[in-house]
Amino acid sequence: MALFVVAIFAWGLAFYGLGLYLRDLSTQFGWSVTAVSLVTFSFHLTATLLTFVVSRQFARRGPRPVFLVGAVALPLGVAAVGLVGSLWQLVPAYLVLAVGWTCCNSNPISATVLAWFPDRSGAPLSAALTGASVGGIALIPALDAAVRAYGLRTALASTAGITACVLLPLAGAVIRSPPAGTRPPATKERRPPFRPFRSTRFWSLSLGLALAIAAQVGLLVHQLKYLDEGFSAGTGARLVAVTTAAALVGRLIFVALVDRWASTTSLGCGFLVAQAIALAMLAASRSTTTVTVACGLFGLGVGVLITIPPLLVRRSYPQVPFTTAFPVVNVGYQLAIATGPLAVAVARDRLNGYRPTFTALAVADVIAVALLIWNGRLGPDTDAPTADRHEGQADGEFWTTGSVPT
């Protein structure tokens, strides 16, 4: 439950919230969408680099210190966004926000869940990350209403205060490592480095996830701006809520099926196909009915695409500690998150609108599905350098082990 609440604030303020910041900052100060998207790129690039640092600290110290840093940095970053008066000031604000995001996103949440539930991790991980969908459903419409009523600075300052009051007690008193007796004993032997870069298994997984998340985040960050261009005030936020509500539905379906389905890969790809269809619908029509259906259809896969990367990493590299394998595979995923919104912004400016860009995003989803299906047919890597003994584990290092989803 604590991780569920953390996910609400992390995704609501540092994932879905980026679209709201883009819209309101570009409107309030007259900044171009491309300029704000470039700063958003710096946010995600920073998060990508910080992933390795956070993963290492998580492995050494466990979840509590990591989430404590996140509980401080996330509200500070949100408050700082509300205080900016020029474009350059948005850069340090987003850097602080990136620290909070990296310490509270799917990387530490997944590692914590996988440590507590090593044998059947799919359902509890999906349940914890359901908070991401709730964050979009609950926080974005509320924050949008607060911004319209009180202004961006007051709305974000108040939100930051509430965030700190909720997350600090959870991180300091509730979130913790599993009992010491459930973790493998430490040894002083050193393990070979994890270097999967020459294998098709790595590239099919990394590129497939990267293309899928680039298409998803590219739409989500620009969704509110796109909707506000063709619909009345407030309608855009409600349609974003449709997407996030559908994300909750999709995640609940995924939770019900993931530990029963024969292949996590095929299950996840089904949701990606739905997103490709939704993007094609947005490219084809701007009628209210079509856009509403497309927003809902797209939303079904939003939460799933957040959940499947750690599960697919566990399936592909069962003998490598999660805190070692996931950051390496996750580099392409994080870089795609960084470049997706920027690429959409540039395409929008060059093509004079969003609709041609959505067609390209649909094609990216189709390619992603093909790559992930190919990866699923390769099976797990049984030649990984780390065996069940977990060579090279330092004293106090936090490992995740157990059976692997298919």
Describe the structure.
About 75% of the residues lie in helices and about 0% in strands. The protein is an all-alpha fold and about 400 residues long. It has one domain: Up-down Bundle (Growth Hormone, Chain: A). Helix 1 packs across helix 7 (about 120-150) and helix 1 runs antiparallel to helix 8. The longest helix has about 30 residues, at about 200-230. The two termini are about 25 Å apart. Mean pLDDT is about 80; it is low at about 185-190 and about 385-405.
By DSSP (H or I, 4+ residues per run), the number of helices equals: 15
Which range best describes the helical content: under 10%, 10-25%, 25-40%, 40-55%, 55-70% or over 70%?
A: over 70%
Report the span from N to C terminus. 26 Å
Average pLDDT level: 82
Structural class by sheet pairing and helices: mainly alpha
Q: Which consecutive residue ranges, at least 5 long each, have pLDDT under 50?
A: 184-189, 386-406
Which CATH architecture is right?
A: Up-down Bundle
Taken as a percent bin, the fraction of beta residues is under 5%
CATH top-level class: Mainly Alpha
Number of strands: 0
Number of domains: 1
Order of helices and strands: HHHHHHHHHHHHHHH
Major sheet attributes: none
CATH names the topology as Growth Hormone, Chain: A
Radius of gyration: 20 Å
| CATH homologous superfamily label | MFS general substrate transporter like domains
Choose one word for the global shape. Answer: globular
